[in-house]
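Take a minute with the sequence and fold tokens given here and flag any structure token that looks odd. Thanks in advance.
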Amino acid sequence: MKIIVVEDNVDLLQEMMFMLQHYGHSVRGATCGEDLDRQIADARPDMVVLDVGLPGEDGFAIAERLHRLQPAPGVVMLTARASVEDRVQGLRFGADHYLVKPVDRRELLAVLDRVHLRVRGGDARAVVEADPVASVRDDANAREQRDTARPAAAALSWALDGAQLRIASPLGETVELSAREHQLLLALVRAGGRPVARSVLLKALGRGDGEADERALEVKVSRLRKKLRDINAGEAPLRAEWGAGYVFAERCRVITR
């Protein structure tokens, strides 16, 4: 299936593209409506996964335009905007399905398959729900491939220093952190490699659970990942886990004084 993902948060866009490619789809990314138009002009997609809160033209207006194309791609909205009014507006403007972040990858994959079959006139009964065991096995294999591709230095530990508000990479490079960034990392590191729900991280940052709070968390994580990449040869251990939240995927010791 040819899919274009429209998401202005570059880290989330890359995570979703990686996941969809892992399951055998041909995936392109776009960060706004103009970027999407360029991608469509180059290669007409079967499906578009569309955020609502985009810079410039919002997802509702884009969905309405896509609905008028011939042939029109399937449109699945994937957004943090969870109100009934937003759901209804999205469907009225031409979306084939409306999903609220965070979403389990199996649900997203099943919705994409079902919408694609319906749009193309196929038999929706042919869709087989993703096998949870196979999904876990595939994810484990993917993690193993990523881990073996990293430098040997990655086997060493990160070090989070709360007194100095900084973190050191396994390569020995350090970067200063804001107090909020430290709180975010501390919550992730204390989870010992397990995913931490977005609601828990929002609480650690002293925020609520509204759309503005969700966007603030995404921005904070994006900036933090850039800091971590800059001191670790382009690799960041902070990753999104679909349907679960975020995870700090490498060892990290906490320094307290």
Observations:
- Residues 151-255 form a domain with the Arc Repressor Mutant, subunit A fold (CATH 1.10.10.10).
